[in-house]
Amino acid sequence: MNCDICQRVHHPKRLPFFCAVDARNELYEGRIANARILMEAEELESRVTKLLSDSEVNTDNNPTPNRSSREYIENCASEEQKAKERTAQIIASADRLRDEVAAARKAIEERKANIAQKKADIAAASQGATARRAREVEEAKKAIKMTKYSWDREYDAMTQYRAALCMEVAKLYRLQRVRRGKPVGFEYKIGGIDIVDLHNLNSAQPELISASLAHITHLLWLTSHYLSIRLPAEITLPHNDYPRPTIFSLQSSYHHGDVAFPGTSLLPPDPRDRQFAHVPHPRPLFLDKPLSTLSKEDPTAYTAFLEAVCLLSYDIVWLCRTQGVPVGDNNLEDFSCLGRNLYSLLINSSLFRTPQQIAADVPPSPQANTSSPSPNTNTSDNGWKAAPRMGLYSHGTSHTFLGSAPGQDLTRSFKMPNITKIVDKLKAKLARDAPAPEWELLEDDAWTPDDALDDGVIVGGKQGAGLHAAHAGHHRFGVESYMSVNTVKSGSSGDREQQNPRVPYANGNGAGAGVAGSDRDREKERGTSGWTKIKPR
């Protein structure tokens, strides 16, 4: 019904109360339900009253049934049959329970008999258990010793094969030591060329340095391959589109993908490869120009080359110490001798081993010691295992693995210097040992009166003093010498070298050196076009 005040249809759940009519409409359904319940209760009460009255009337009208009647007899027979069936069921259940109890008792007796038999067997077996246990333990220990002995013998043979392979590849590369000078000194060669040590880089030709480093790099890589050793600084050998060897820093080694050759365009990185997002820069192990020229023209390349040779020396020293080869202290002098360290590693380490050292390398036979070892004896830490030697510790075998606890103790026993400090020391030493500006010899036409000697000083004497007769007609101003501070540069025309003979140097008194022109032609260098360097005294 609609409200007289708000004029809307009442809904008991959606619309709230606004007036008294809404409240009345809300109570209306409850009142109807209450009235319905009261009416149903009254109807039920009337039905119960009627039923009670009917039962009382039937009881009064029907007397007690007759015992001789047929219905009574049939009811009694039915009750008797029910009682018999219930009794039979009870008896069957009792019999079944009796059988189950008997079976349980029999199982218990059998279990007791089995337990008694087991106790008897255990008592009989425990009489010699101690002796048998000791015998089995001794047999197991003996088998373990034999297995370790066989393993050690096979690995000892493998180490000898590794050392032999390293020596053979060194011989194939013609790594040798040559006696030179007085007092007796040694020079080292590889592939028929001299091995340039780090402290002699200023005086060596770039081609010789590059060839020497290329041979050393390849030989070192083969050695690490035969020894199954991963060097601290990764070496990259020449391969397709990678013409010369390079080396990575200690932090960048083995943590990169494909790297382009220095000076070429970088390879486009794969955006999906997050591991190699940072591409390191390899250090070059080669030179295209003299080291002094490179230091002036390209300091960055100069520093990269010094880092490369120091990293290569670092690898050699690290490999020597892991293989038990002494290389001296952690100073620049010991690190600079590439040839000596490499020769000591590959030749001396196996060539000068005494029979006592070879016998000490062989593990003792397990039959030699039949007595049981003491509890405090550690058979896995024998002296022949702990002492490092050529081919013993490696990264490729589980026996004396270099990354295990004994290998870590070995690498911690020697302290490698900081590579940055080594580079700084080498750079300072090369800067101190850099040659001073050298004397230069000019052609005859350079002494004409039109030439302006802005860059030098003329030291002269009388005309033709001390000169060879063949050169007397070519010198117009006597014996002069030109001292220039300009750097000698090659690349001039070669025809001028043949047309204009050189002027011999003058001594302090103005006298000539008296050297023939043929000797001068033999002394001049190729491609200098008449310019000759004088070695400093």
Question: What do you see in this structure?
Answer:
By secondary structure, the chain is mainly alpha-helical. The protein has 3 domains: 1-57; 159-264 and 279-366 and 383-423, no CATH class; 436-537, no CATH class. It contains 14 helices and 10 strands. A 3-stranded antiparallel sheet has the order 1-2-3. Strands 4-5-6 form a 3-stranded antiparallel sheet. Helix 3 (129-172) runs antiparallel to helix 4, helix 4 (206-227) packs parallel to helix 6 (299-322) and helix 6 (299-322) packs parallel to helix 8. The radius of gyration is 55 Å and the shape is elongated.
Quick structural summary:
With 537 residues, this protein is mostly helical.
Question: What layout of secondary structure does this protein have?
Answer:
Elements: H1 20-61, H2 70-125, H3 129-172, E1 176-180, E2 185-190, E3 193-194, H4 206-227, E4 235-236, E5 246-247, E6 283-284, H5 291-297, H6 299-322, H7 332-336, H8 338-351, H9 355-361, H10 383-386, H11 405-413, H12 419-432, E7 439-441, E8 458-459, E9 481-482, H13 495-499, H14 517-523, E10 532-534
Antiparallel strand pairs: 1-2, 2-3, 4-5, 5-6, 7-10, 8-9
Structural class: mainly alpha
Net shape: elongated
Q: Largest beta sheet: what is the strand line-up?
A: 1-2-3
- Portion in strands: 5-15%
* Helix content percent band: 40-55%
- The whole-number mean of residue pLDDT values reads 74
Could you say how many structural domains there are in total?
Answer: 3
Please write the string of helix (H) and strand (E) elements. HHHEEEHEEEHHHHHHHHEEEHHE
Q: Which stretches are poorly predicted, pLDDT < 50 over at least 5 residues?
A: 358-362, 368-386, 451-537
Number of strands: 10
Number of continuous helical runs: 14
